[in-house]
Structure formats: C-alpha cells, structure tokens
Amino acid sequence: MFLKKTPGPRTVILPDGGILTLADLPQPQTRWVASRKAAVVDAVYYGLLARDEAIRRYGLTEEEFDAWTSAFRQHGRNALKITQLQKFRQP
Q: Which InterPro entries does this UniProt record tie to the protein (predicted)?
C-alpha cells in the first residue's frame, strides 16, 4: 500500500479520544447532515484541513463555513441540524 504525501497531518486525535483522518471526511458532493458538517469543522479546527482548502473542496462560502463553526462551538452538533436552525440562530 502506498500513501500519498500530503502537507500536514493525516490524522488528528479529538478531545473525546476519537481519531479523525482525511478518509473520514465527506466526499465533496455530499448531502449535508449535522455529523458531516461537524467532521469538516473539526478537521479545520484541529489542523487536519486548512480552512481555505475546506471552503474550496466543499464549495462553501466563507460566511457559511463561519456560521457552521460558530454554531458548533457555541451549541454543539445539534445546532448544525437544519431543523434546529431557528432555535440556535443568533438574534
């Protein structure tokens, strides 16, 4: 098995002891659910993926990604659910 050289780490250890790898990230053309959004936010926060790379890879706007990050950090994974958007939206 050959591993492609990539800049930066291939894995990161999350505070809960879980391991996040590049293979765990969703495909670029994905249906966005809270767990996939959280995986991308964690990948950027813990240095697995650069912010600009995540935005480019997933076709996000900076505002959209920043909103995910803010909601996830303040309220947890439930804030990323589209059905909970009104409940956690900033006034």
A: DUF1153, Trp_repressor/repl_initiator, WH-like_DNA-bd_sf
Radius of gyration in angstroms for the set of CA atoms belonging to the chain, rounded to a whole number: 14
Query: Per residue in 7-19, pLDDT tens?
Result: 677 889 988 899 9
What is the value of pTM for the model shown?
0.81
Q: Is 77 exposed, middle or buried (0-12, 13-18, 19+ CB in 10 A)?
A: middle
CB-CB neighbours of 80 under 10 Å? 24
Could you give all domains of the chain from N- to C-terminal order, each with its CATH number?
A: 31-77 (1.10.10.10)
> Based on the number of CB atoms within 10 Å of its own CB, is 57 exposed (0-12), middle (13-18) or buried (19 or more)?
middle
